[in-house]
Prior knowledge:
Number of helices: 5
Structural class: alpha+beta
Distance between the termini: 29 Å
Helix content: 25-40%
Largest sheet: 7 strands, mixed
Shape: globular
Mean pLDDT: 93
Amino acid sequence: MPTVEIRRATEHDAESLALVHVKAWQWAYRGLMPDSLLDGLDVERRSAGWKRLIRDGLAPTPHLAVIDSKIAGFSHADTSGDDDADPQVGEVTALYLLAEFVGTGVGRRLWEAAVDQLHGSGHTAFSVWVLDSNKRGRTFYERRGMSLDEATKEQVFAGSTLSEVRYRSKLVSRRGGQ
């Protein structure tokens, strides 16, 4: 595994964070989402959104994986926004890597940072939503002990309906306790 620094994003990271976000969507979702949607993703717009979220403290700050001063990926976690979730349920809302870092352990490190954050903020369970057709993502979550909980939702992107499934797990500290 490359030498990876996991740290919280700052406002100054917003553009690089947005670039990783767009590039990750473009490689990870090609063939799963309409090309027109993926090709139309706007780094500048996403940068402004990340900058606002970080500056205004609208949600917890994302974790970045930095390799040789380059952002290789990020994860984000917060309290779940699902209608059926109580306040003790967290959610990993994002986990994205640049394609060249897939399979290097960077994604696992970002996942652990997000889960540790949720544990540290008092959540007792957590979830993650994933495209039903995203076999790579589903396998990643299953290898981390997540289980399908039968919740589904559909979203319309660029005229296409995409189905998502939810995985859930109790939140157990990696150090062995709850």
